[in-house]
Acyl-CoA synthetase
Amino acid sequence: MNIFPDTLCLNGTVHRVKRLLQAGRPACSPGIESDVIDFLAQWYGPQNTITVHTSGSTGPPKTIFLTKKFVVQSAMRTLDFFELKSGQRILLCLPLRYIAGKLMVVRALLGRLDLCTADPTDDFAFLARCRDNSFRFAAMVLNQVTKLLGEPNRFEGLDSLLIGGSALPSRLETELGNVPTACFASYGMTETATHIALRRINGQNASDRFQCLKGIQVGLSERGCLTIEMPGLDAPCLVTNDLAELDGHKTFRILGRADHVIISGGIKYFPEIIEKKLEDLIAYPFFIGAMPDETLGHRIVLAIEARSDEQFGKKLETFFPQRLDRYERPRDIVFKDTFKRTETGKIIRQL
């Protein structure tokens, strides 16, 4: 397979990659198109790796290097799963700084797809006009999907949508059940060159379990964290920090992150599971955290991104007995004007 095709179809026009690279950024409009040129220079460069950056949600952002062969394998798995064919339109609306955006370009190159671009902050109003010439595939993060749900007719311009970046709230998952687009949640990370498993969010095949893509299988570490076996890894397997429940070696459910687990009174609690039980009660961003406690070791705390509101806090507490097991109930509710976030918008869980 030639992983360096001579041409790229960009926004409906077939370009010679060599000419694009010779012309550089001025050859395209400022913004995401110009970022595509920058990535092409890296992809067609002499090194056998590309440089990518982690989001910083689990620690300081890191720069890592992925071999182009490894990235190609990831792109081909997506082309195969979604049955993407030459000439079909795909939508790039993710920043090229991160691996998810870069992979959209590689998929377009290898699949000879028409790579159409939109700024990541766009409201995607143009999708409502695309029902007769829809985009075969797009990848988005939660805040972009939330915009689309504000105008559901815009989904008519998308055949398949891959949603990544962070866990999908139950409320959004319920709303996506009513859209015509085939929606998928993804599981993956920068180190795996995006997703290694998908789960259908809506339609007849909707599931709460992730299914590994071709050639990939999973297991559990001694701590109960997901391990990934896939072609191209430097080690026999990649050990993640995600606690999981397996159904064989191809299907799994994520319980939460090991570094988020709260041990209170000698019992382990998974914040993500508690958060799911409270999602529909809290309209503001929030998370479950912990604070030191002399008796329990740590006590469970609910942090809400909003102005201090004692009345709202008391109202929430009345729902705790209905929604939460006795020892899952937060001992404190903390209001914060603003949460710290990563560059990609993920909440940094600091009290």
User: Anything to note?
Assistant: The chain is about 25% helix and 30% strand. The longest helix spans residues 68-81. The helical segments are 17-23, 32-43, 68-81, 99-111, 142-150, 170-176, 271-278, 310-323.
